[in-house]
Design brief:
Chain A: This is Protein prenyltransferase alpha subunit repeat-containing protein 1. Chain A: InterPro entries: Prenyl_trans_a. Chain A: It comes from Frieseomelitta varia. The complex is a heterodimer of chains A (555) and B (209). Chain A is an alpha/beta fold. In chain A, the strands form three sheets. Chain A has a four-stranded mixed beta sheet. A three-stranded mixed beta sheet of chain A has the order 7-9-8. A two-stranded antiparallel sheet of chain A has the order 5-6. In chain A, strand 8 and strand 9 form a beta hairpin. Chain A has three domains: 116 residues, no CATH class; 146 residues, no CATH class; 174 residues, no CATH class. Chain A is elongated, with a radius of gyration of 33 Å. The longest helix of chain A is centred in the last third of the chain and has 43 residues. Chain A contains 19 helices and nine strands. Chain A is 60% helix and 9% strand. By secondary structure, chain B is α+β, with helices and mostly antiparallel strands. Chain B has one domain: 2-Layer Sandwich (Beta-Lactamase). Helix content of chain B is 39%, strand content 20%. Chain B is built from eight helices and six strands; from the N terminus they run ββαβββααααβααα. In chain B, strands 2-1-5-4-3-6 form a six-stranded mixed beta sheet, sandwiched between helices. In chain B, helix 1 crosses helix 8. Classes of the chains: A alpha/beta (555), B alpha+beta (209).
Chain lengths: 555, 209
């Protein structure tokens, strides 16, 4: 049941109605005396400069207006009456809503009994349905989905469906149920003296939030209940998960979950184990994945994910491991090739893994002594496969041999670690670059993929720049004089070595880009434009053909 | 999303089409929608095959979905329903391949009398699962290192000239999907209600109230 207040009838006799709701079935109307008389005496005229209905619509409007008036004479002023539903064209002009009147008698109201005493009687089943839903949610913590099932008639059946961890609600009861819960909650909120059982409030909140989670007030009411220990924080996760299944883009629900996370992580008696795969953070990542699956370009889901990873870092948790996160997000991106939000998250991870991380995310592999070597092999394999027809294979081979020798010669654990870190960082870049290569080859014409490639080019440049200074740092702290001369030599060779390696890498990247660009321009006109833009970008960052990286003479 | 939803093999009679075998992957839909989604995919597959001439390949767009269809000269037909991102070439490769296999197992003479329950052709499920990842499944798509592959793409796109059709274009003159749906016997009342809601919210299978 919705209320509608007819504010006034303007001199030009257009009916302007200020309503708090949009389209609805039955509406009770409050008529002010002057309006009533005005309405009775006026002739309807429709259409102004900004709202000019077609001839057909105009006649419909006039007819509806007549029908509306034919009911009104029975109503006495200042009383509440059921008036036929206002349905159809609703249009807002300067805060006023113009309604088209379409009579539509609800089944439970006869023409005679137009007086409505209590709002609650209109939908007596509301409490029953709400408690049904609540029971299902409480009894089954592994419930994973909530949805609305279209059904026009109630057929005397319960609207609550529960099958295999899935909850469904028939669509006919959505509107009355929500209106009921909404009205009750706002009555409570506005009347401070009123007391209500917390469990009842929680039930209303459950109903209202499942159906429309975009009301911050309701979430705040739930927060109050949690804080006063009327609701169990851990159970709140189950409930908000349902909400997010139904509305995967709901910011309020994500915000609530973040609040819950910090709430349980800060509380001392938390029953969670941050060091297990079952940690609350892992669960958050699962939910973010589901939401991203269910709604394309879901910004809120990805920013939630970023938040969780940052939280993991700041709290120093071991789980979720960065390696699984790396793998899972790649798998997601391969399933959603045109969704840039996922790629943007990969960029966030790449930035973190290549530049910021002090810890080694590939720790589990570090135990294996050859892992650095393996990364190096992969890197060389990539370079080799791409520049075989253009580049200087001889020089590459020499560099490769030299690096191997150097790799074995290193005895100091610190330097070895540096070297491993270097190849580790590049291994991430390489993996992402390969994924991008193959995605562009397989899928025609996706701008997201080309934009991601831009980022990869930029990242390569940034990495090379940061690695020049990095090696100089390493040797800056020479301890004795005669050692420093020797060190200088080593430094020089190493710097050269790194530069040559970078040079080859750039060559390989460019050759690869040329190949796939060739493929792309041939197969699709639109993609050709994307490729041209990509090359323009390369030029602007100085990674194009003309701006060849200066080859440093080999040691 | 790169996804295959349904794969069905049909026989095209002069007047109608019968499903000989079908496989579905509707896990990505919410639980209570799945039954209706299946019914719909069957319905759409039949509708499209009935309106495609023999010896004709096409990819038909309907909302968020792409229906790849091929009707052979001997009136055996197959429809693969995917999303927009699934590579068309791979889709048509799969269709051709599976139809050949099916025809090898059941000779042409049996098609007319065959019904879906009688047919034993479990490979179709395997293919549907395997081809979810077009990259791993199809050796032909591995063209990273092999630029000759471009030719295949170019050739195949020129063959498949009739792309980017919409379902409206495929329907015969005077037909419209809403009417076909409401007349259809194969769709339950529940599915019709789903369809109506989905039309109203203007997106195929999401039900934002």
């Amino acid at each position: 049941m919705k209320s509608l207040l007819i504010k006034r009838v303007f001199p030009y006799k257009k009916i302007l109605i200020n309503t708090i709701f949009g389209r609805c079935n039955d509406i009770d109307v409050f008529l002010e005396k002057e309006i009533y008389t005005d309405l009775m005496s006026s002739q309807p005229q429709f259409g102004t400069s900004d709202f000019a209905p077609s001839e057909f619509k105009r006649s419909r409007l006039a007819e509806n207006f007549k029908q509306y008036r034919s009911i009104s004479p029975h109503t006495s002023v200042e009383k509440r009456y059921i008036v036929p539903a206002l349905k159809g064209a609703v249009r807002e002009t300067e805060g006023l809503i113009v309604c088209q009147f379409v009579p539509n008698f609800p089944r439970h109201v006869t023409n005679n009994s137009d007086e409505v005493t209590m709002q609650d009687d209109i939908f007596p089943a509301a409490e029953k349905i709400l408690s049904d839903i609540e029971n299902v949610v409480k009894k089954n913590p592994s419930l994973k989905s909530f949805e609305i099932i279209p059904a026009e008639d109630n057929e005397n059946k319960s609207p609550v469906f529960h099958q295999e961890d899935c909850l469904g609600l028939a669509s006919w009861c959505v509107q009355p149920l929500y209106c009921y819960a909404y009205r009750r909650l706002f009555e409570l909120r506005q009347n401070k003296h009123r007391r209500e059982e917390p469990s009842t409030i929680a039930r209303w909140l459950l109903g209202a939030l499942l159906l429309n989670p975009n009301v911050t007030t309701f979430w705040n009411m739930r927060r109050e209940l949690v804080r006063s220990h009327k609701l169990e924080a851990s159970e709140e996760f189950f409930f908000s998960r349902l909400v997010l299944y139904h509305k995967p883009k709901c910011f309020e629900a994500f915000a609530y979950r973040r609040w819950l996370l910090s709430y349980i992580l800060n509380s001392k008696d938390g029953h969670y184990d941050p060091e297990s795969v079952e940690s609350p953070l892992c669960r958050e990542l699962d939910i973010a994945t589901t939401c991203a699956d269910r709604y394309a370009s879901n910004y809120h889901a990805w920013s939630h994910r970023r938040h969780v990873i940052t939280l993991r870092e700041s709290r120093g948790f071991a789980y979720p491991t960065l390696e699984t996160e790396w793998k899972n997000s790649l798998a997601w991106c391969q399933r959603h090739v045109s969704d840039y939000s996922g790629l943007s998250y990969r960029q966030f991870l790449l930035n973190k893994y290549m530049f910021e991380l002090k810890e080694l995310p590939r720790e589990s592999f570090i135990k294996c002594p050859d892992v650095g070597e393996q990364w190096k092999e992969e890197l060389f394999a990539y370079i080799k496969s791409n520049i075989s027809d253009t580049g200087d294979m001889h020089q590459l081979q020499r560099l490769y041999d030299w690096m191997n020798a150097e790799f074995r010669a290193i005895t100091s654990s610190r330097r070895r670690q540096r070297q491993t870190t270097y190849f580790r960082a590049l291994s991430y870049w390489l993996e992402e670059c390969r994924a991008n290569d193959s995605a562009i080859c397989t899928y025609n014409d996706h701008e997201a993929l080309w934009c991601h490639r831009r980022f990869l080019a930029y990242l390569l440049l940034r990495f090379m720049a940061s690695n020049h200074s990095y090696h100089e740092d390493e040797y800056a702290d020479g301890r004795s004089v005669d050692e420093s001369a020797e060190r200088k030599n080593v430094q020089k060779s190493l710097t050269n070595d790194v530069t040559v390696c970078h040079d080859f890498l750039v060559q390989a990247f460019r050759a690869r880009t040329n190949k796939i660009a060739d493929l792309a321009t041939k197969r699709d006109q639109h993609e050709k434009m994307l490729v041209e833009r990509f090359f323009k970008f390369l030029q602007s960052i100085g990674l194009d053909e003309k701006n060849t990286y200066t080859l440093v003479e080999k040691v | 999303m790169v996804k295959l939803y349904a794969f069905s093999i049909l026989y095209k009679n002069p007047t109608s089409a019968t499903t000989l075998k079908a496989a579905y992957d509707v896990e990505s839909f919410s639980f209570f929608q799945r039954g209706s989604v299946k019914e719909f995919m069957t319905f759409i597959s039949k509708t499209i095959v009935e309106r495609t001439q023999s010896c004709f390949r096409q990819s038909v767009k309907e909302g968020d979905y792409m229906c790849h269809v091929f009707v052979r000269a001997d009136n055996l037909a197959a429809v693969l329903i995917s999303d927009h991102e699934y590579p068309r070439r791979v889709a048509h490769t799969l269709i051709t391949k599976v139809m050949d296999e099916f025809a090898a197992k059941y000779p042409q003479s049996t098609w007319e009398t065959l019904s879906e329950a009688m047919t034993d052709f479990a490979q179709i499920n395997v293919y549907l699962a395997k081809y979810q990842n077009p990259n791993e499944a199809d050796a032909l798509t591995k063209m990273q290192n092999d630029l000759d592959e471009t030719k295949i793409i170019l050739v195949s796109t020129s063959v498949l000239e009739a792309m980017h059709n919409t379902l409206e274009a495929v329907l015969k003159r005077g037909e419209n999907l809403d009417e076909l749906v409401s007349k259809s016997q194969g769709l339950s009342a529940q599915s019709k209600a789903f369809y109506k809601t989905a039309r109203k919210t203007n997106s195929c299978c999401s039900l934002a109230p």
